[in-house]
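dumping this here before i forget
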Amino acid sequence: GLVMVGLVNREGLVTAAAYGATLQLWNYVQMPALAVGAAVSAMVAQNIGAHRWDRVSTITISGITINLIMTGVLITLLLLFDRPALGLFLGSESPAIDVARHIQLIATWTFLPFGTTIVLIGTLRANGSVVPPLIILFLSMFPIRLGIYYFAYPALGGDAIWWSFPLSSITSLAMAWA
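structure:
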């Protein structure tokens, strides 16, 4: 988070304000992903403990489905009503609203693969596998997200920051799935 704020701050005051407001809204979008991931982890752990391995896949797939629906609805609502939602944090006449809307359009959908990753990682953790998820999340946050930023910045400018979110999220999903 601190690294991303540092990168965003390089883009100027308006972008920093836009990102701050966007982060506030993203906190609400990611809540279902975290809650469903925790619920899946608990249910999978209970079924593993009961030696009901036949239920693990169903629980995981149900968690992914529920997560995609809940998060998808929130993302849709946020993108449809982004100007009034951002106005709550920035004021309705702020020049940061257009920048925040741009950020939202590029990066908000990243919470769909993020939520799926969280459910898959919850399933792994329920089975006692804690190191691979840690490595996956570390890789997706640091070398991958920052690598995307640094390699794409010459071509995309500040948009490289926003594109690093969905691209690193898709990469972490692929690693968790594998």
